[in-house]
Amino acid sequence: MNCIIVDDEATARLIVAQLCSNVKELEVIDAFGSAMEAIKFLNQNTVDVIFLDIHMPGFSGFDFVQTLKNPPKIVLTTSDTNFAIEAYEYEAIVDYLVKPVTQDRFNKSIQKVKAALAKSPEPETVSNNTTNSNSSLGEELYINIDRRLIKINFNDIQLIEAKGDYIEVKTTKENYRVRNTLKKIKDKLPEKLFLQIHRSYIINFTKIVDIEDNSVLIEKNVVPISRSNRPELMRRLNLL
Amino acid sequence: MEQPNLNYVHKLADGNTEFLNQFISIIKSEFPDENQTYINAIMAKDNKASAEIVHKLKHKFNILGLEKAYGLAVTYEEQLLKGTYDLHDEFKLILERITTYLKTI
Fold this sequence. Notes:
- The complex is a heterodimer.
- The two termini of chain A are 25 Å apart.
- The longest helix of chain A is centred in the middle third of the chain and has 17 residues, at 103-119.
- In chain A, 28% of the residues lie in helices and 33% in strands.
- Chain A is elongated, with a radius of gyration of 21 Å.
- Chain A is built from 8 helices and 15 strands.
- Chain A has 2 domains: 2-119, Rossmann fold; 131-236, CATH 2.40.50.1020.
- Chain B has one domain (7-102): Up-down Bundle (Four Helix Bundle (Hemerythrin (Met), subunit A)), CATH 1.20.120.
- Helix content of chain B is 77%, strand content 0%.
- Chain B has helices spanning 7-13, 17-43, 47-63, 67-81, 88-102.
- In chain B, helix 3 runs antiparallel to helix 4.
- The longest helix of chain B has 27 residues, at 17-43.
- The chains are: A alpha/beta, B mainly alpha.
- At the A-B interface, helix 1 of A face helix 1, helix 2 and helix 3 of B.
């Protein structure tokens, strides 16, 4: 059984590593001071367990869990007890350790991890970027403009913006204004190619030029990323 | 008044001096930085940054066996998030006590 440790405090990482060293079948592959470093690692590697601090600057442990499509088993480590209820809303979270953790308590946690691993299939960790596999889908959508059904290839759509009772479909050739809702068109789009990153925007993942803190550039359009949608966007990226 | 100690760390080390030395080395370098971060946040009257660093420091109180100090830090963190700095003096005394202790190990 292998694991990684994610905690912004060096003393905490060392303590968890020491706890792990006393469990024969557990091997610590690496330890990370930030969630982003761990995500980059998980893009290339699979692990059985993550010992994860909840309270980290910028990107909380829960944000981190949400970025993992099929997460491995996760044991939360925290100084707070008031996150416990939220923790158990995530299927991947097997246990919740309150610091300072004793060896006995840690060993019990490992038993829980083993039991959970025995029940579940192999983890896939972070999903790969879906861009390449979807860029030639060749599928299309018909939209009704002035009683004409106009065919739009999925690959031509850059983004879709909600504007009151209308949606605007921006393509590489033309923009179309359609009386419809973002939710309805979202249901018609292939999930692997499109992603809602804000309550008013769905973007074509293959059209991203770059991403800043809270916005995405699609061709020449700057599109905001909402905080709640950001983890999913980060999960979909093939981060180096 | 409770004193900082390494009881928890010794128990965890279970004779592993390499771990013990590593821990002492890390806490000696990490704590002064966090202490300074706290002072800077207080001087800047940044209550959110202050609460953030108090949260980090309280974990060290726990490790160093300072249970009452930990309780105070929990309350202080909550108060800071509401913009109240009343427990600053008491908190500062705890930090000073730890600073003195770390020089002895």
